[in-house]
């Protein structure tokens, strides 16, 4: 009972209109209504406070010849000073962008201030009316009536504040009138009661109407500012919140932080289990993220799997870090989706304003740079923006700009690294490797520019170029030699990739079985749903398929059953250590034995020593690739390498 009573008074003092029979709302909607109420009060407050100051001065002048002159003067100075100070504060607050949400605590302060001001005027008839001259009494009567009307107007949307302001004045008038038995005062008392009833009735009617109008407005705006799937604010709403924070920063120096999040496994969920599962994943993520924030702050969904938060009134950077760590920790428990347990993760980039920028462009650019570094560090990483991030971001954008014209400027080229068949002791094919000779940067490693190409979509144009060049080179090689081309996951989003391969094979007039596609386990894990149909069509065409970096993924055996691979390539990390680490040797032997049972050839990558080659021969490996056999060579050196009888002699059994 006591808890319910406490809750009732807390809602009452927070201006909850449902307490008075008005429309019921949830906490979020109530916060929006309080924001609109507060904005109206601030709009009236400058004029009301000026009126308070003027009325106090008028009262002091009217009572100048009264016995209470000194007390009236002190009262007038205190009230006028407080009114002017509050008016200036309100004027400053009005210049700052209107908040979207106002807390109960802020409304409590407003009600308290209304009561204090009302009590100050409630003292007037009690303290000064009896000893004042008739003229002074007339002034007191007019001023108290005016303050009642002004207070009702100022707090017309907040009944509890209107009551807090007017009640002390009514009480003061009642005490004043009760001191004298004059029947005229009884009539005045009746008029005061009628007057007050009409005022409060008008306040309640107006406040209910106002609240319903705000509710309709907020609900209408939600359709524009709300993400329909997660019900979180969308990018439009986020940009508005960020603009408001920037305005407060410029006007009052209020610091804030922006947290940018990216889901590390959303594409895997979406492509592996389907779009409905991906949507449910996003809904559950949104719910968890929102529970990590403060009451007045809302995470926004600003992209497919990208979320952001503006943390207003930031006291210290550790506050932003604490929220970011809560975001990361919220992914600890698995997500229950369609009867499956799915493990998620997020990375977070943080920028602090004004330290890291004072414009929307700078803040979002730097947040993206911080997030990029966090994602590179691994799932669950939180990174604050650093100056080096900005340089890295500029370098990436410059690299992207240069890459866009690399094909036209003939800066890209292919090199070919051979596969050596250990049984026949001959070269049976080549892996096509992409290189970029930048005019200023020199030779740019694929590890630097392939990721940029995938992020920007340039990988599709580059991929088509690689396929065409590889097939053109293959046309000049012996019929029993193949070419292998690496495919990235992003390329399988291009619906024309199948037609590109068919057209390249036809243009070069080569048999499909001589063209081999190399895909990685990680690509299958994240993109199998999208790639499956294209891969099946290519296999029906006669193209062969190799699984690259075998052993570094998570579901190797699963995909060996799903797709008819011609070859699997053992990752070079196992080959490098197999002669010194028994576990690596055991893995290599197990893979070769498994592949033999499945009738799949095995290629060992990264062979660099004769001892490694001898060991692979002994355990029955089919093909090897590495610097011991040959480094990658230009296209015009391939035929010469094929004709090297010396090479065959060196690696003879």
Describe this structure in words.
It is a single chain. With 653 residues, the protein is of the alpha/beta class. It has three domains: 2-224, no CATH class; 235-385, Alpha-Beta Plaits (2-Layer Sandwich); 407-650, EAL domain (TIM Barrel). It contains 23 helices and 17 strands. The chain has helices spanning 2-13, 27-62, 69-95, 104-128, 134-154, 159-178, 183-225, 235-252, 266-273, 275-291, 317-329, 360-377, 387-404, 446-456, 458-474, 497-508, 521-541, 556-562, 572-577, 582-597, 610-618, 638-642, 645-650; strands at residues 256-263, 300-301, 306-311, 335-337, 340-342, 346-353, 382-384, 412-421, 426-438, 442-444, 482-486, 515-520, 544-550, 567-570, 601-604, 623-624, 633-634. It has an eight-stranded mixed barrel. The chain has a five-stranded mixed β-sheet with strand order 2-3-1-6-7, with helices on both faces. Strand 2 and strand 3 (306-311) form a beta hairpin. Helix 12 crosses helix 13 and helix 15 (458-474) packs parallel to helix 16. The longest helix has 43 residues, at 183-225. The radius of gyration is 38 Å and the shape is elongated.
């Amino acid at each position: 009972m006591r808890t319910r009573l406490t809750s009732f008074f807390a809602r009452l003092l927070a201006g909850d209109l449902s307490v008075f029979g008005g429309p019921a709302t949830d906490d979020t909607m109530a916060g929006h209504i309080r924001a609109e109420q507060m904005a109206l009060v601030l709009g009236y407050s400058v004029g009301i406070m000026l009126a308070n100051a003027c009325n106090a001065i008028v009262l002091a002048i009217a009572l100048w010849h009264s016995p209470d002159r000194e007390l009236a003067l002190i009262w007038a100075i205190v009230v006028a000073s407080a009114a002017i100070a509050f008016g200036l504060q309100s004027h400053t607050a009005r210049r700052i962008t209107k908040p979207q949400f106002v807390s109960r605590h802020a409304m409590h302060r407003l009600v308290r201030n209304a009561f204090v001001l009302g009590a100050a005027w409630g003292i007037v008839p009690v303290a000064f009316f009896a000893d004042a001259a008739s003229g002074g009494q007339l002034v007191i009567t007019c001023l108290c009536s005016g303050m009642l009307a002004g207070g009702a107007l100022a707090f017309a949307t907040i009944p509890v504040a209107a009551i807090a302001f007017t009640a002390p004045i009514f009480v003061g008038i009642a005490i004043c009138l009760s001191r004298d038995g004059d029947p005229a005062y009884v009539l005045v008392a009746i008029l005061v009661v009628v007057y007050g009833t009409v005022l409060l009735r008008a306040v309640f009617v107006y406040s209910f109407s106002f609240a319903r109008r705000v509710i309709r407005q907020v609900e209408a705006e939600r359709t524009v500012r709300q993400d329909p799937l997660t019900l979180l604010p969308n990018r439009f709403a986020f940009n508005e919140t960020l603009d408001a924070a920037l305005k407060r920063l410029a006007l009052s120096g209020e610091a804030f932080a922006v947290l940018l999040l990216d889901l590390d496994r959303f594409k895997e969920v979406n492509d592996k289990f389907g779009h409905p599962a991906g949507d449910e994943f996003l809904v559950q993520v949104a719910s968890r993220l929102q529970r990590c924030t403060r009451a007045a702050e809302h995470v926004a969904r600003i992209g497919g799997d990208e979320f952001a938060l503006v943390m207003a009134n930031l006291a210290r950077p550790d506050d932003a870090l604490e929220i970011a760590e809560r975001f990361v920790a919220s992914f600890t428990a698995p997500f229950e989706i369609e009867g499956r347990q799915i493990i998620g993760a997020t990375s977070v980039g943080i920028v602090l304003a004004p330290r890291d920028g004072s414009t929307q462009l700078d803040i979002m650019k730097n947040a993206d740079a911080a997030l990029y570094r966090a994602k590179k560090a691994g799932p669950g990483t939180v990174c604050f923006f650093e100056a080096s991030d900005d340089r890295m971001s500029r370098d990436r954008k410059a690299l992207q700009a240069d890459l866009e014209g690399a094909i036209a400027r003939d800066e890209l080229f292919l090199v070919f690294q051979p596969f050596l068949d250990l049984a026949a002791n001959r070269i049976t094919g080549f892996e096509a490797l992409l290189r970029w000779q930048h005019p200023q940067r020199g030779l740019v490693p694929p590890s630097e520019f392939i990721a940029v190409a995938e992020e920007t979509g340039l990988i599709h144009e580059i991929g088509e170029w690689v396929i065409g060049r590889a097939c053109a080179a293959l046309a000049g090689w012996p019929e029993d030699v193949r070419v292998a081309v690496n495919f990235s996951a992003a390329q399988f989003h291009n619906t024309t990739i199948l037609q590109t391969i068919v057209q390249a094979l036809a243009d070069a007039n080569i048999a499909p079985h001589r063209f081999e596609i190399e895909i990685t386990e990680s690509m299958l894990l994240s993109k199998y749903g999208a790639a499956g149909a294209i891969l099946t069509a290519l296999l029906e065409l006669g193209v062969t398929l190799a699984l690259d970096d075998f052993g570094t993924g998570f579901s190797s055996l699963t995909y060996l059953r799903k797709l008819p691979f011609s070859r699997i390539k053992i990752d070079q990390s196992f080959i490098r250590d197999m002669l010194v680490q028994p576990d690596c040797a055991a893995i290599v032997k197990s893979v070769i034995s498994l592949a033999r049972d499945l009738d799949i050839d095995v290629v060992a990558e990264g062979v660099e020593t004769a001892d490694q080659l001898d060991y692979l021969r002994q355990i029955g490996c089919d093909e090897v690739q590495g610097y011991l056999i040959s480094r990658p060579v230009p296209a015009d050196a391939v035929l010469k390498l094929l004709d090297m009888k010396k090479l065959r002699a060196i690696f003879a059994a």
